[in-house]
Amino acid sequence: MKRLRSLVIILVMVMVIGTQSVTALADDEKAVSETAGIIEIEQQKEEEKETKREEKNADEETEGETEISVELGQIETYADVDVVASGVCGENLVWKLTEDGTLTISGNGKMNDYNRFSKDHFLYPYRQQVKAVEIEEGVTYIGNQAFAGCQNLTEIKNWGGVTSIGEGAFMRCDNLVKVELPDTITEMGWNLFNSCKSLVEVKLPDGITSIERGIFESCEKLTGIKIPNGVTSIGDYAFRGCISLTELKIPDEVTSIGYYAFGLCEKLTEIEIPDGVTSIEDYTFAYCSDLTEIKNWGGVTSIGEDAFYKCSNLIELKIPSGVTTIGNDAFRECSNLKKIELPDGLMEIGAAFVDCTCLVEIEIPNTVTKMGGTFSGCSNLIKIQLSDGLVEIGGHTFWRCEGLKEIIIPAGVEHIGALAFERCSSLKTIYFEGNSPTFHRQFENDKGDTMRCENFLGVTATVYYPYENPTWTADNMLDYGGTLTWVPWNRVTELAIVLEATDKEYLIGSGVDAVIKCTGELKDFVSVAVDGYLLESTSYIATEGSTVLTFLSAYLDTLSVGDHVVTLNYTYGSIDTVLTVYEKSNTTNNNENTESTDKTDTDNTINNDKNVDNNEPIKKPEDVNNTEKVENTDKGTATVTGTPKTGDASTLWILWLFCMSFSIGIMTFAVKRKFV
Known about the structure:
The chain is of the alpha/beta class and 676 residues long. It has 5 helices and 42 strands. Strand 1 (83-90) and strand 2 (93-98) form a beta hairpin.
């Protein structure tokens, strides 16, 4: 029984263990089944990826699957592990972009030209991944806009065999800092480095002959650049907007500088224009706000519109002889410009000096025939001398010249344009020297309406016109928008000796001519007298400006030592000045011992000792009865009366001694006869 019980227990235990084993086996089979399913799914996914990869490779191989060497004129594809992209960029050129951002161009010949906005550009999806460019030997040309817009490009490692670069090839490469172009390059296209905002340093090749249009435009950090000596032209916009450019030497070989070439170069302080340049184009130096000096004008004959617009630190301006025209707004808003010297030969001035608010005084050369808008807005202009040859005062010429008080309109002026003197609120006196000009009376506005011209709007002034001139009629003498009082007059030039241009002394025997200058016009000059005696025209030379008399030394040597009154006679009056004549030697001992106890004689005798000691001129004794009037401030009119002084005063003393001796002799003879 016990054995049977033990056998039953063993049987039950075997059954329990078997049941557990079957259950565990079932669980294991289920787990294996699930794992197999997952593996199968992953394998399917991998197979799908591989299929796509193979399809992609097949597409790339379709573009260039034939693997032949470039030397044979065929294309080689890359299988580098780190290549991001590759392709063709020329008939015999290929490119590759690696993971480190290096773009390599290799092969033989020229790159294709591109448009950076086109999806056909070879770098269209990869442009921002390019950090460096390496051009291998054999590449001779970089195409238009080939690397334009590669904003992360920082260096060009190698230039290969490049001899020319197309337009805009590196434009808008914002992080390009330094460029050194090899001397093999002889041609560079427009806008090559346009808007490379970080570009600081550039070395140009020696072989180029021109700086093309816009090549460095808006390179805001470029501080300086050396232009090779072989360059003969600088194109439009070449350096426009290089706001950090402080110095630049333009080679002597340059003969043309383009439109806006240096506009907005705010830090440029001085310029020197080569002799071969004959024209400064429009806007060439506009907005160069730190420009203080134009050291040389070269061979310039014309200055274009807005050429120096808003060069606000120009203070003095001397425009060279040879310049015949100055365009509109050429020096507009040069707000610190105080002194302008215009050349003889200048023929026409447009609205050149608009809003030059520091300009106070200016003289217009007599060669100028036409002005228009020239000094509009020059609010501090007080004095102006117009050209005698002026024919036309165009519209707005003196608009808002609020400091102008008086103006003389030359006789030759035939026309005064619209609004020529509008808002000249301080203008009180206007002189017309000639016939009545025509006044611009009306114009059409933008709507086509006829509008009346208010040439003197805001002006209250007295206007003088030539007396008995039949061209001045009631039809001409209107208010023209202002309050004008018309008065006839007979104007002559006020006579005055120009002391700073007049010689006051002459040394006998010096051989140096003496000059006297008077404000009177030469056309009104009649004659000249010295001590009341009219001179022959052979004794002097008369020239204009206004009247300049040059007395010849040969005549002056005939005058006695002392003061001589020189009288200049004009059709409407005379004026005097004094010329003092010295002896060549300071030895004046002839009269040293001459003294007189008679008070009258003392008054008429020169104290020679005093004059010698003080090195003063020895003056001739004055006639006590002389009523002559002499003015050496010389303003207004003067006349000469009294005894002429020409000749030697010693004759009078000899005559006096002779008479005294004769009288004593007579008296002695009479006494002797009386006693005999």
